[in-house]
Amino acid sequence: MDREKGIIDRLFDSSDASDEELRLLLEADASIDAYLFQRADEIRQKIYGKEVYLRGLIEFTNHCKNNCYYCGIRCGNRELERYRLSKEEILECCREGYALGYRTFVLQGGEDPYYTDEMICDIVSSIHGLYPDCAITLSVGEKEKSSYQAYFDAGARRYLLRHETANDAHYRQLHPSVMSSAHRQQCLFDLKEIGYQVGTGIMVGSPFQTTEDILEDIRFMQKLDPDMIGIGPYLTHPDTPFADQQNGSLDTTLRLLALFRLMFPYVLLPATTALGTIHPKGRELGLKAGANVVMPNLSPTAFRELYSLYENKICTGDEAAQCRNCLERRVQGVGYEIVTSVGDCAKFRK
Ligand code: SAH
User: Fold this and answer.
1) Given CB 3.0 to 4.6 Å as the disulfide criterion, which of 5, 82, 170, 201 pairs with 230?
2) Which helix (H) or strand (E) holds 339?
3) Which of 269, 258, 260 is nearest to 230 (CA)?
4) Claim: this prediction has a pTM higher than 0.90
5) In what order do the strands lie in the sheet with 158-160?
6) In this model, does residue 203 exceed pLDDT 80?
7) Residue nearest atom 24 in ligand 1 by C-alpha distance
8) Which of 59, 69, 71 to mutate to test the pocket of ligand 1 (most atoms within 8 A of CB)?
9) Cα 183 to chain center, whole Å?
10) Cα 164 to middle of ligand 1, angstroms
């Protein structure tokens, strides 16, 4: 335990540790967690105080041309009813969100060629025109650099694209061979070069994931220097090839959140919906372990159930206002406070 405490203190002071030290922390028993979470929270409070930022999530299409083995909206899932939101429906979500205090909108969807670059640019610039004080985030997968540039020119400033796993062999175990980790990582560097604030991340406990894979993920993130790291437990979906695989664990997800807070002090760390799905207090526990963002759903309730990345997703029946109030209570319940600002990564604050 003294050895682990020493490593945690060094992470606190220098934000880095050797592979061997990180391996030790990743594989330690639960006795290290109280101290780990306490030190992570100390850093978080030093940089972000008790603030928790809101991102309004608009899941605008569940059509996807990809066939990722873990994901419920993969094109190979014939059991799923598919939907798309029109521009007007998306703008209606923003209108409702704005009234509830949201100042960041995240447009997420499967990779759906129905939405051409022109359509995405039109949607982005319309939101930008109506709500110039809001940040627009896109999360629509791997695109050409020229497309990313066009979305940026239309007003998008943030992009979420989890690298999923930095280990190439592991990536191939999770995705069909037409996809590659090299391309996904290239997309992230393209986005950074254009000037986006980027979010990357992984699923914790995805099938075949090893401690060594997680170490590679950490080293990749150090190279990328992301503004956001989105992690949640892998949750199995019955209509995928991974139907028989086990869920990831709450404890490992919390431990990684704390490690990321210590290693990337400035990063935005969401307490994700997957974390809230695996445990009723998952998001609260995430906030106490270093997370500082929540992403409530703004999608119309009629479609929530259909954006089924995994099973038993929470909040599918709640109206936007209910989600907003529920989260406010949850965040306050663990001693933090929701702030309604664009909530930039602290790196960008002067
Ligand atoms: N098409 C977009 C958005 C994907 S969905 C893209 O490619 O980025 C957003 C994230 O949900 C994915 O990056 C993945 O990490 C996560 N996800 C997908 N299936 C999941 C599952 N079964 N359990 C937990 N998280 C999952």
Assistant:
1) 201
2) strand 337-339
3) 269
4) yes
5) 56-61, 104-109, 135-139, 158-160, 197-204, 228-233
6) yes
7) 234
8) 71
9) 19
10) 8
Contact 114, 102 (CB under 8 A): no
- Nearest residue (by CA) to ligand 1, atom 11, is 309
User: Residue 34 burial (CB < 10 Å; 0-12/13-18/19+)?
Assistant: exposed
pLDDT digits (tens, 9 = 90+) for 231-267: 999 999 999 999 999 999 999 999 999 999 999 999 9
What is the phi/psi pair of residue 58, to 5°? -115, 105
Residue 231, beta-bridge partner list: 202
Q: With contact defined as beta carbons under 8 Å apart, do 235 and 278 qualify?
A: yes
Residue type for 193, please?
Answer: E
Q: Residue 11: which region, alpha, beta or left (left: phi > 0; alpha: psi -120 to 50)?
A: alpha
**Which residues sit with their C-beta closer than 6 Å to ligand 1?**
70-71, 108, 110-111, 139-141, 161-162, 164, 203, 232, 234-235, 237, 274, 309-310
